[in-house]
């Protein structure tokens, strides 16, 4: 085109100095114009959602190129480099079109538009859109399904569980203990309260995790005692209770131990194993022979049908639950004979009477 233009000039202005000047000026303008056009011509690679296209453009900015290609860019689309960037030879323009994402909260379903790569990025960048719809995503706290690194897809569903962590303080009772003391002056089986107990109190701080408003986890993080508990003191008796021999015609005879024995009778005038003379005293205290392993020597006993007696003698045949009662005549011994199932009551042990 330039050469044709030069030929035309030569034919039109072939005579005189002025013609030469005009020719030179015109040639210069044409050269500059040609250079400018060549400079504006650029090869550009355009990628839209991963689909690439290479073409020639004379546009000066990214925005102009995209408009020339008939692409509408929304506020949520991502364009790299920016729309105002100048276009150079072999530049690459990347466009990521925003897609709708359905986001479900416990009490509300909303929608955001995002061109981000992952669910996490979409929620963070789209938080302003969420807030406009009355909900909010808290990064690093709320739970999300599917996983945060899941790639974004058009019309995908994302569930957000709102997580809230609070410190909660509660006052709790500290139970008191009961201390038991033994008391030999109190009968066995009996108890009495020496001093009442009092519960203590402590302040406990918990970290409570709520998911969608419901308590999901509760963990104690600290505690302090406000009031120390006071232990109760209970006295428990160890003294053997007083027992009474039954059927004594209104007479109360207390005893320590009851035995059921076999009984025989003996007589004679030799000293007993304890060195005293045996006696039979129906109105007082008579003498009997015992097994000291069962009835200690020196004990005061009451033998049913015989009366009070001192366990003062022993015998070779008196082993175990057998006693030998003393009479002062053979006839009485014969009359007593051998008895079984005789009730013997230990009234007092040696040293107690």
Automatic annotation (TrEMBL):
The chain crosses the membrane at residues 21-40. GO terms for molecular function: hydrolase activity, hydrolyzing O-glycosyl compounds. Residues 160-240 form the G5 domain. Keywords: Membrane, Signal, Transmembrane, Transmembrane helix. It comes from the Bacteria. SMART domains: G5 (SM01208). This is 3D/G5 domain protein. It comes from Clostridium baratii. The gene is yocH_2.
């Amino acid at each position: 085109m330039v050469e044709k233009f030069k030929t035309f000039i030569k034919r039109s202005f072939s005579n005189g100095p002025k013609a030469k000047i005009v020719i030179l000026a015109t040639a210069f303008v044409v050269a500059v114009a040609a250079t400018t056009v060549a400079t504006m011509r650029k090869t550009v690679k355009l990628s839209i959602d991963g689909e690439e296209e290479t073409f020639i453009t004379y546009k000066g900015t990214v925005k102009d190129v995209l408009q020339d290609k008939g692409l509408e860019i929304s506020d949520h689309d991502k364009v790299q480099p920016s729309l105002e960037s100048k276009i150079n030879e072999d530049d690459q323009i990347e466009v990521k079109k925003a897609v709708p994402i359905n986001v479900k909260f416990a009490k509300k379903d909303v929608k955001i538009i995002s061109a981000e790569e992952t669910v996490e990025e979409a929620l963070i960048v789209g938080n302003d859109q969420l807030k406009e719809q009355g909900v909010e995503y808290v990064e690093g706290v709320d739970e999300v399904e599917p996983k945060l690194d899941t790639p974004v897809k058009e019309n995908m569903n994302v569930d957000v569980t709102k997580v809230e962590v609070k410190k909660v303080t509660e006052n709790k009772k500290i139970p008191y203990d009961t201390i038991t003391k033994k008391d030999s002056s109190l009968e066995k089986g009996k108890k009495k309260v020496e001093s009442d107990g009092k519960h203590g109190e402590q302040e406990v701080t918990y970290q409570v995790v709520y998911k969608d408003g419901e308590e999901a986890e509760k963990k104690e993080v600290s505690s302090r005692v406000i009031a120390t508990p006071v232990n109760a003191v209970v006295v428990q008796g160890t003294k053997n209770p007083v027992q009474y021999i039954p059927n004594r015609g209104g007479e109360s005879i207390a005893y320590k131990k009851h035995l059921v024995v076999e009984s025989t009778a003996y007589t004679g005038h030799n000293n007993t194993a304890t060195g005293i003379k045996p006696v039979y005293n129906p109105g007082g205290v008579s003498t009997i022979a015992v097994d000291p392993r069962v009835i200690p020597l020196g004990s005061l006993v009451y033998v049913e049908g015989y009366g009070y007696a001192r366990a003062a003698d022993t015998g070779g045949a008196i082993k175990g639950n057998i006693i030998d009662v003393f009479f002062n005549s053979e006839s009485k011994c014969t009359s007593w004979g051998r008895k079984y199932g005789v009730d013997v009551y230990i009234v007092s042990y040696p040293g107690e009477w």
